[in-house]
Amino acid sequence: MKTVFKIAKAMSQALSISALLTLPAWAAVYENNYLIGQGIHDVTGPSAEVGMMGYAELDQKTAGIHTRQWARAFIISDPANGEPLVFVSVDAGALFQSVSQGVLTKLSAKYGDTYNRGNVVLSATHTHAAAGGQSHYALYDITIMGHIEQAYDAQVDGIVAAIEEAHNNLQPGYILINKGDLTDASYNRSLPAYENNPQAELTQYNSNIQPEMTVLKFMQGNNNPVGMVSWFATHPNAMGNEFTLQSSDNKGYASYLFEQQIKGHGDYSDNKDFVAAFAISNAGDMSPNVGADSEGRGPTSDRIENVRIIGDRQYVKALDLYNNASEQLTGTIASQHQYVDFSNTQVAGDFTGEGTKTTCVAALGEAFAAGTEDGRGPDLFSEGAKADNPFLQFVTGMLAPVRQSDRDCHGNKAILVVQGNTSPYPWTPEVLPVSVHKIGQLSMLAVPAEFTVMAGRRIMEMVQSVLGDQTQHTVVAGLSNAYSGYVTTKEEYDMQHYEGGSTHFGPWTLAAYQQAIYQLAANLLPAGQIPAPALTPAAFPSLEPIPRDLTGETINFQTGVVHDQAPIFKSIGDVVKNANRSYNRGDQVEVKFWSGHPKNNLRTQSTFMEVQRYENGSWKTVANDNDWQTMYRWQRIDGFWGTSHAILTWNIPAQAETGKYRLKHYGDKKKPFSGKISSYTGTSRSFTVN
């Protein structure tokens, strides 16, 4: 694949010379110094009867689609040395190690060693409204009722397809960067923990949120915009734990708005179009539910309206930064990657401030089970719990022993379960990837967890100090390449709020990350240059730990689709409830059909529904199940008989053209006995919009 980059380097030089000769002086500002490629692909999982990842609620199972989920891929390559970097933002609750392993295996088969564990960053947006079951580790599959291979395949294959599209789109180009503050799209949901940090640190930052948004503007050729990445710290969990339609939440809505703004249309079937990713950063304690009510909803009491508001605020800020970006990223592309066993890392005193310390076997505290202000757990648990509950430890001890050494190591944590002691495998991974990547004067820190705002600040400050004037901008790419709960500062950990109770490896987890990131950043310095400050971390082990691959070791407690039927004298695809004959703008259209099970066909890169308008003698699609104004819901009627309904909803936009419309349903049905799956359609009556 190096040949591709050599050819593109020559193209870049030719285009740069051509631009200088043919463009007016005011336009010949930026040199095409990188190769840029972008891609997007559908990763939506099963839209019925699969647990959703995020809230760990058994009752929160998929029952349709609010918006689809996407993998948005970017490849940046340095023509000088052929070194590429892949960044993929994925609409997902988490990006599990199993998915990363599956993606890397498939990339190796396609491209050899061009794209590898050292230069591929897969980052979840952390939407709490998407199908789960992609993990190979038990803790993340318990409330999903096991590993869901269909959801796993949709995510792995979609990410690979997005990267392949980006690879095929590689062209000479350049990147502009801009930063600015957004102050009304997040609030700190764990103030007592945050305020336990040192006063000097609190004063230094003078804000309990991370207001800064960083935007990259990707350009190809002379002046062709092809993509945008925004990093901003807020949770995409505005839908709440009772919402059962798959949705990309506020970050996905911001992407939807941005892509429509630049492309002028919402057709996602054209993967070579503009791609806008709204990625997550150090958002561990950053909630989007500003002004939350007693049930954790904000700014309003309407969940969907809250998603719209917070998504729109991110979009508006990102668009402003994008339009006004002028600083070009220049310089080499370089990456440093390391697997670290965080269950047993010796951390030097330079990073702990209290002498040499050791991380712990993974355990969750009672504060984890208490939940957050965005979604509370059972009343049995509460945030701030520091005293062990012998009864709870007796119960969970039947799953995994709680040793005195575990209690001593985890300090203030009231241990609920030591998932690192389960057999035959731990319930969560302990060997995790950490990486530091440079694109010119930008450093990206890829971490496999949810860092609180202050924890993220500390690792960013660490890299800034090590690299000095070689980096002017630093971002945290959270939830990247694996998932291992939260990371708080030691001071926040001691308070044992939800985030501290969810910090797997004990009070020195952040210090272990700081140590690893320090070493990786130092490796990016020119040979012989000593980092400042010159610290002496415990060295990486001579034999790098490698994550276990649990492919084939998972369990699925869910049954597949048995069969689909409609009642006697009815057929699947028949209308149960039809549209009215006319509507006004602002009205809602709802049509119900006898349907097949959505698991029969995920309809990847396709749709379960369309809104069609009659134009010039034919029906033209104006919206589908990815659009904001539509909803596709699936409802089980009778499991024994295999009957179900598909309910299509269209909220008619205020700007909709008047005329004749209809709703069309697409699905697939599984026949009794033979098990054969075949497609079907259903169409409403036509109606007018006035």
Distance between the terminal alpha carbons, to the nearest Å?
Answer: 56 Å
How many β-strand runs? 35
The major β-sheet equals: 9 strands, mixed
Q: Would you identify the regions where 5 or more consecutive residues have pLDDT less than 50? A: 1-28
Q: What would you call the shape?
A: globular
* Helical percentage: 10-25%
Rg measurement, Å: 25 Å
Structural class of the helices, strands and pairings? alpha+beta
| Secondary structure tally, helices | 15
Mean pLDDT score, rounded? Answer: 92
Proportion of residues in β-strands? 25-35%
Describe it.
It is globular, with a radius of gyration of 25 Å. It has 15 helices and 35 strands. By secondary structure, it is α+β, with helices and mostly antiparallel strands. 24% of the residues lie in helices and 28% in strands. Strands 1, 4, 5, 6, 7, 9, 10, 11 and 13 form a nine-stranded mixed β-sheet that branches.
